[in-house]
Amino acid sequence: MIQTATLGFVALMALLTAGVPIYLALIGIAGSLALMAVVVTVFFIAYFVAYEPYRALYPDLIDHAIAARAQGTQAIYRGVGTGIALIGGGLLIAWGTAAPFVAGAILFVLAMGVFLRVAVPRARRFGQPRRRSEADTVMEEASSLTSVLRGHPELRAFLVANALWEASLGALKTFVFLYIIDGLGRTEAASAGIVGGVALLVLPAAVISGRLADRYGRLRAMLWVLPVYGFGQLVPAFTDAVAILVPVMIIVGFGGGLIMTLPYAVLQPLMPPGRHGTLTGFYSLSRGIGTALGPLAAGIAIEVLAGPFSSTQGYAAMWLVCGGAILLSIPVVLRLRQLAEHRIDPRDDDQ
What we know:
The chain is mostly helical. Helix content is about 80%, strand content about 0%.
C-alpha cells in the first residue's frame, strides 16, 4: 500500500515538473485572476520539485571548505540569468504581456535539456550510491523533516533567517520595476537599464562574498554585510535624489549578491549525515515562505502607506519591507551562530 501510494506521489511530481514550461507560458495568457492564481500555484510547486534534486548535489559533490565559493560561482550564473530576465522581460513586454513568459518557458526547456544531457551523467559517477528502492523511501524522507527540525534548533533559526532574506528579495523583485516606472516616472527602457546595471553588481559580489566567507566564516561575513544592506535599503523610501540613490544601489546590488550566494553554504555544515535531500527541501521551504510573504507584505505596505509616500504613488514603501526583513534577520543570525558552534564539525568552526 505504501509503495503504491509513493509511486503515485512520484508520478504526480514528475508530471508537475515536466509541465513547468507549460505553466510558465500559461501565466502570460491567463485571462482571469482566479486562473492565474491556480497556474502560478501549480508552477511554483513544480518549480521547487524540479530544483531540489539539482541543489541536493552540492553537499555530495562539493567539499565544505569551498562551499561558499561554489555557491558564489552558482550565484554568478544566477545573477546573469536574473539580469537577463529583468532586462529581457522589460523589453519583451513591449511585444505583449505573454512574451516574457513564453520566452522563459523556451529557456527552461533548453536549460533542462543541457542539464540532463551533461550534468546528470557526471553526477552519477561522483555522487552518493543509489538506494535500492527510491520509491520505498520518498514518503519517509518527506515525513522525517519535522523530526529533524525538532532535534536541531539551529535549523529552525536558519528557517526564519532564510525566509526573511528571501522575503526581502521577493519584495524587491516584484515591485522594483513599478517603483522605477510609476514611482520615479522613468520609462520602461530606462528602468530595464537601471535594474540591469544593479544586477551586474551581483557578479563581483558573488565572487567576493564567497571568498570572504570561506576565509573568515560564512555567518561572520553575513553579519558584516547585513546591517549595511538592511539600512541601505531603507534609504530609497525617504529620498529620490539621484546623488544618494546611486551609491545606495551599489550597496543593494552587493548585498543582494551576498544573499543569493551564502545561505545554502551556511546550511551545508548544519546538515546531519544522510539528510542532504531532506534538508535541501527544507531550504527551499524557507525560501518559498519568504517568496510568498515578501511580495504580500510589500503590497500591503504600498496600499496602506500610499498617502505618506504619495510622491512615488506608494511604491517607495516597498523599501521598508525589503530593508526591514534584512534587519529583522540579524538577531536570528546571531542566535544561529551561537547554536551552530555546538553542532558544526570542528573543521567548519569558521561559521
